[in-house]
Amino acid sequence: MLFVYRIVDLGVMTPCQKILETVMQVKADIVGVSGLITPSLEEMIYVAKEMERNNMKIPLLIGGATTSKIHTAVKIAPKYNQPTVHVLDASKSVVVVSTLLDNRLRDIFVDDIKEEYEDVRQDYNESMQEKHYISLQSARANALSLDWKDFIPAKPKKVGITVFRDYDIKSLLPYIDWKPFFDVWQLRGKYPNRGYPGIFKDKDVGFEAKKVFDEAIHVLDTICQDKPVKAHGVIGLFPAYSLGDDVVVLNDMKTERIATLYGLRQQEEKERGDYLLLPFRLCLPKSH
């Protein structure tokens, strides 16, 4: 059976009011919101509250790099009385949407999600009760201290912005993560043939996985040959130094501060001798 969906893309940083107005205008069946940065998490909670306040009756899908099943179950789902589902990545959205729109499968799926999220909330609340936190001052006193005296960082060939235009697509093919592709087709191998290329050896899905893979490779070969699309990339390498819990980024001439990456130090109480770390602590301090 072929499912065809019309997607109304409202872009990025769309105000909640605009989302709700569009939902009512187009009579949407499902709302999907995606969060790539931390502030988006709070905005998603607000969207859920507003959908509840407006007495909406459609499912809410949560996705994006900063989201998680725990955050969805603990912070978002309780604010909205309709199905609220965390979707791990874009490849899963097709399956979730088709299930939610199928009258035969919807109720069972929604009940399973509610039960699963209730378990997630209970586990989260229990884990929070077991954790003990220390003051930020004490955490900083127990930071990892490194000896930078004899360390000389390697200098990149080029500092600043580097743009890669019309990059050879064929050279990118070995870096493709095929897992989302097979997930879209609901092809999942069993251990030890779970991932690519082992999935081709799986006795249940191996044949079909190899078939759709070969078809995809044929499409990619056509793209490489005919070049209907182009690949561009941008990277930036900049001087930086650590300042307390943060990292200061300078321009390529080291004459101007262009960004500050704010660090969040661990504060959970640990065993004696364990350091409380930062996400990016391996950066020379300014004094060096």
Descriptive overview:
Strands 1-2-3 form a three-stranded parallel β-sheet, with helices on both faces. It has a three-stranded antiparallel β-sheet with strand order 6-7-8, with no helix packed on it. It is built from eight helices and eight strands. The chain is globular, with a radius of gyration of 24 Å. With 288 residues, it is an alpha/beta fold. Helix 3 crosses helix 5. A hairpin with a 2-residue loop joins strand 6 and strand 7.
Distinctive features:
288 residues, alpha/beta, Rossmann fold, Cobalamin-dependent Methionine Synthase, domain 2, three-stranded parallel β-sheet, 8 strands, cobalamin binding, transferase
Order of helices and strands: HEHEHEHHHEHHEEEE
Give the number of helices.
8
What separation lies between the terminal Cα atoms? 64 Å
Mass-distribution shape? globular
Strand order of the largest sheet: 1-2-3
CATH architecture of the largest domain: 3-Layer(aba) Sandwich
What is the fold-level CATH name, i.e. the topology of the largest domain?
Rossmann fold
Q: Give the C-alpha Rg.
A: 24 Å
Can you identify the CATH superfamily of the largest domain? Cobalamin-binding domain
Number of domains: 3
Give start-end ranges of low-pLDDT stretches: none
Question: What is the highest CATH level, the class of the largest domain?
Answer: Alpha Beta
- The structure class reads alpha/beta
Strand content: 5-15%
- Sheet bearing the most strands, described? 3 strands, parallel
Number of strands: 8
- What integer is the average pLDDT? 90
Per-chain topology:
Elements: H1 16-26, E1 31-34, H2 39-53, E2 60-63, H3 69-76, E3 84-86, H4 90-100, H5 106-130, H6 136-141, E4 160-167, H7 179-184, H8 206-226, E5 231-237, E6 240-243, E7 246-250, E8 257-261
Parallel strand pairs: 1-2, 2-3
Antiparallel strand pairs: 4-5, 6-7, 7-8
Helix pairs in contact: 3-5
